[in-house]
Amino acid sequence: MTLLADLLSIVFERRYRKSAIRKAKDGRPVKELASDLVGSTGEVSGLAMADELLTRFDMMDDESKLDFFRHIAIKMNIDPEAVRSTLYNYEQNPSRASYRAFMTAAEPRRQELIRRLNEAQGATGALVQMRADLLRLGKGEPELEALDLDFRHLFVSWFNRGFLIARPINWESPAHILEKIIAYEAVHAIGNWEELRRRLEPIDRRCFAFFHPSMPDEPLIFVEVALTKGIPNSVQGLLAEDREYMSAEEADTAVFYSISNCQAGLSNISFGNSLIKQVASDLSAELVGLRTFVTLSPIPELARWLKQEGLEWDLSHPEQMSATAAYYLLNAKRKGGMPFDPVARFHLSNGAIVHAICANADISDKGLAQSGGTMVNYLYDMGKITQNYEHFLTTQKVVSSSTVKSLANSCSILQVQKR
Amino acid sequence: MTLLADLLSIVFERRYRKSAIRKAKDGRPVKELASDLVGSTGEVSGLAMADELLTRFDMMDDESKLDFFRHIAIKMNIDPEAVRSTLYNYEQNPSRASYRAFMTAAEPRRQELIRRLNEAQGATGALVQMRADLLRLGKGEPELEALDLDFRHLFVSWFNRGFLIARPINWESPAHILEKIIAYEAVHAIGNWEELRRRLEPIDRRCFAFFHPSMPDEPLIFVEVALTKGIPNSVQGLLAEDREYMSAEEADTAVFYSISNCQAGLSNISFGNSLIKQVASDLSAELVGLRTFVTLSPIPELARWLKQEGLEWDLSHPEQMSATAAYYLLNAKRKGGMPFDPVARFHLSNGAIVHAICANADISDKGLAQSGGTMVNYLYDMGKITQNYEHFLTTQKVVSSSTVKSLANSCSILQVQKR
Amino acid sequence: MTLLADLLSIVFERRYRKSAIRKAKDGRPVKELASDLVGSTGEVSGLAMADELLTRFDMMDDESKLDFFRHIAIKMNIDPEAVRSTLYNYEQNPSRASYRAFMTAAEPRRQELIRRLNEAQGATGALVQMRADLLRLGKGEPELEALDLDFRHLFVSWFNRGFLIARPINWESPAHILEKIIAYEAVHAIGNWEELRRRLEPIDRRCFAFFHPSMPDEPLIFVEVALTKGIPNSVQGLLAEDREYMSAEEADTAVFYSISNCQAGLSNISFGNSLIKQVASDLSAELVGLRTFVTLSPIPELARWLKQEGLEWDLSHPEQMSATAAYYLLNAKRKGGMPFDPVARFHLSNGAIVHAICANADISDKGLAQSGGTMVNYLYDMGKITQNYEHFLTTQKVVSSSTVKSLANSCSILQVQKR
Amino acid sequence: MTLLADLLSIVFERRYRKSAIRKAKDGRPVKELASDLVGSTGEVSGLAMADELLTRFDMMDDESKLDFFRHIAIKMNIDPEAVRSTLYNYEQNPSRASYRAFMTAAEPRRQELIRRLNEAQGATGALVQMRADLLRLGKGEPELEALDLDFRHLFVSWFNRGFLIARPINWESPAHILEKIIAYEAVHAIGNWEELRRRLEPIDRRCFAFFHPSMPDEPLIFVEVALTKGIPNSVQGLLAEDREYMSAEEADTAVFYSISNCQAGLSNISFGNSLIKQVASDLSAELVGLRTFVTLSPIPELARWLKQEGLEWDLSHPEQMSATAAYYLLNAKRKGGMPFDPVARFHLSNGAIVHAICANADISDKGLAQSGGTMVNYLYDMGKITQNYEHFLTTQKVVSSSTVKSLANSCSILQVQKR
Question: Which of C2, C6, C7, C10 to mutate: most A Cβ within 10 Å?
């Protein structure tokens, strides 16, 4: 059976890698391995070297990792002279050969190194981890920031939307995947397996993740969905232990109440947009009663922005908090004109609009600290997404419901401040 | 169950693509679509445009395809001035930003176009087909040959060894895969389903293919294996209708008797080496009795070479044919010093050696025409592969068994000719 | 992954059986093995004996099989004295122990034998084959016909509807399953793989089969479905090589145009009813446009009945043929009052009604010979199935559309004959 | 893909059942439903009635369940007169028809009822649950104990060894299966998910369960295995939190340290023997270094037996405890001659022997209470299993290693007592 075969080979490959990565077998210094790998003419010893290099890197301390990164950043950089002369030749005599020479010169050899490393079985995950190390260690060093661009350039190809697989995550999912959901949940923390079960098992809850075929054990990003009647206005209600379940068929609304990226090494390679759209499309096909797709989102930078603006807030006036939040979401900008709030940037760039402000919607310590408990519903109107995001990207104007607009206008303190 | 989910999503995605790709929905000219796609800032309309463009391309005649290729080859090429100035800036002030600007300038926008096209569901197969068209139509045009290098550059990343999945192909495989095996077999043609069954069903026969997760219905390359006692010396014997089957456990030899590439659009992206090694490794693990890994290979260019050298052959003296073949394999070179014979180049570059010459080993019309029926066993000695191929790639010297060496030395006619 | 494990174990078990069944290892005569197996106190040697016995039976000629059947039919029959005395004890003193003694006495030991044989891995298929042999060889011998009832009694439990799995069969199904579809098609023969493809691959064709988890390679029964607009009136139209395909979403009618039982050894254990209902339910869920579920069925006994009644037919008057067929379906009865026609009995017992007569609907040799090319549409009105079949089973009255009723009334020849 | 289809249908069927079983739709009293179901002539309304009856039963309180059980036990019992007269007819005129009449009369109609109930999708699990209720409620009532024999008779057919599927359970298994492992572990309790992980995830630990295809979410029995070097002599060592893991390839011994039955409703239908043999065989195939298959088993009835014999024990003399345990295992018998200890009966009946006594091997409260912490290794010598169990079942003699024999002989207190 082909399917069986697939699984066997995937499992085999993972096993192979697992054991292979544990023991260094080759005496060559890592830097030498890197040069030899790039120079290697055939696949045979290339695979062994790639394996060896990844194994050795994995066992290094941060000092040695940094040293290795600097080495390849500098020694495997482009040679400007070569770029110039091959470019000149190509201009004089454009041909397959002259173009190839230019391509080779214009791409730093470290890109070829990363590509060759990726040929080892199961290497993709190890390279994602390597980039996570680079991002952590390389901050502020121009050479290493440039090296990161090479990683990113290749990852954009490898983690192409067309290669990703959307999987439901539920209480029938493998435990080793579920423990990662617990670990990676970034918005509303999951304390233990019982809490996890409450998010996955009920018939009115869903969760979906993107996976890459070469990293079948690692979710890349996941979204948690509540199926509800009407748009919810607090996360306490959604996550209440004793709430009543509802049949999925009765739901008219799908609420994306938590989206978490899982891989530090895939920073700046965005999947959230695709995942939301895929999930909305899958749910629509399954549940014909669904009319509304909406988020219940935090406003993570509200408090920070108020402080920066020298403003105070008063938790005892929720309606004022709401007005302030509305004002902030519609008007607070970072340099360049994009919204100040990162979650707003994300959803507005996906074609959502600001639909409603919810006071006292997240009264956890974290929720109170970052936004006085206020949250926001972004609305995904599937028929208008394209139009919305194009309008947003062109004008950077935040579109909102008229209610939110009025609310923002009613924000007295800020209007004073504005004057 | 996650696995179910995987399949569902894969199946869904293919279905979606199938129907989506059929109808053009967007009035924009294709060239405009291409520009807009590269310029598109968000995923939302990008996916729709990619889909549309692939659909439209698929429906074009060759004339229009050629026109499209020329358009993107020329209009989306690098801008040498931009390369030079960004390079200069980078040299003056190496930073993440200046490096990024150089990267962007040094990569033609058509690469970004291909990457964005690949984001559509199931687009990978369509792009492989597009490159097949390009190779067919673009021969001799420097701009199109350069464009092909861009396709190739991206395909090397996407069809990375680490992303490929080796699957056994057998009589329990899906019919729509098996019919492709019939269609793609390039060495010893398969006439119908009964012949196919004789190659797949017997317990002493195996077949393996590489697949890419984004093209689950399309084998990329496959190898057919016979399990035997001793090294076989004719393909007639191997494929005889009435031969006796043997239990796989009794076999001491695995014979790779046919390797076929399936995708014209993946030309020059080599998988054969990896597949042979993977299969040898999997078979060794399964069947501990296997000692010898060997091919029974055609000598496709022997006749052509003899003709080119002005030599005649005489089918009535098989021993002379064998000596001639041995001489040819060890000594006939193309410009640059690599063996004249393409199959020899393939196996020798993989670390195999020339083990034995088999007269009258393929007496089909094709076999007689290309080599007077002579075939060759290349031997894969798993412990010496690395050493062999490194020796070969460094020295270009063909290593052979002493028997073949003697046979080559006994080749009188050619020795005369050499003087 | 549990799923992988499942498959592995299933595959393993089949392989194991395949090799195990080939070689007899135990010197005991088969009859002795049978006694020992029934007497065996533990599973350990029981499994080995069961395997051995099945292997040996498989290698027997018909003579020896018959001898074996007679042996167990007679030597492992009930002992009337034991039945009577345990029954008496149970009546006197009803208890778990006395009931158990009665149960044991009232069940012939050959049932226990069959159950123990079934414990061997993959034995179920071998036992189905054994019953096929029994049905073929045992006709007319009361002891063997009684033995068949024991097989049937156990098979009814083992092939319980709740254990069966409905699988779509399509062009992506494994070749070893598809070749069985070719072999087992009983209504409209499939000549080769190309014909099979025309029935499976088009988007407006479907095929479904029932499988038993212990015989995953053997379909038990399958039904072929055409999705159409309107009710078709000829099989030539349905199966035409050059017909236009239709998108499944546009279809308003699902036509069950062929139902084939696959296992002679499961004779009299009916699955057709369940399969039709399952398929109708699955298709309804998938394709919301479907309104009508109908068959296009042969009238296999029409010619035979006419001959039996001393009537002639005239192919040159199709309208007369239709009237005759209508009359036959509504009025011709076998002893006991059930319809004469076996296909009519099947569909009417499932709750269908006679909907329309189609002249010249199957002009193959077979179609012409059995019914002058006339066919019939039975209609499955999902809302009335229960009511229909209960009415039919109570009254044995054939329900038909008014058109068919008029047609039957117009049948002049037969009306004459009736007087 | 057939596999996909399988899963879909299984999943579908489970879903269907889940929702179907929740609401009663039919006004008829349950007893009437039961009669109608047995009398029902067609599948159509039969399935609906079966579904309804199971749903209604599930919602009953114990009182009503008991009432229902009594009803079918009495009203659907055999009719002795009918048995006698059909038996008489069969003797006079043995034929298919007369045998069939006898079969029908000799089988109580309640068996047919249970079979028909099982035709509903997913009914098997509901019937297992029904029998669990029966065993719980029916104790001591002869009619209900007899009814249980009918359940058991059918379950033996349905849970035939040939239908069971052995699956590995590991940290990649679905969470909803794993939570059942936590719940069902009967020997050494699993407190939480972390403890579960320690039993499943390490590379030197394994777990296997039997499943039935119609109850894919319910393990029937599972066994936990430790891979070790040498035979372990304490469960504390095996389960220590901080122990060092070992590569599975280095192990020479597989220790079955816990076997748990999961389904009260499958009481007296033994799978343990088959599971141990299957697992031993699978592990042998995977890990060629395994030489020894052994248990580390509790001695659950030692304390009870000592008390019954009026003997005292002294935990401060472990060597004395060991001798006592050895004596008990070899000599303590229940009525009929079988060993007093139920775990001993189980393993000895499977062909194991008493290999070694381990003092202080389970110092949990439970371990100390039932056997003063003493445990025992039963040895499965694969080559001698058949011989051992046949010897045991014939002679009821407990075979042990010479060490254990000496130990038993050294048991002074008991020898005194014996005199």
Answer: C7
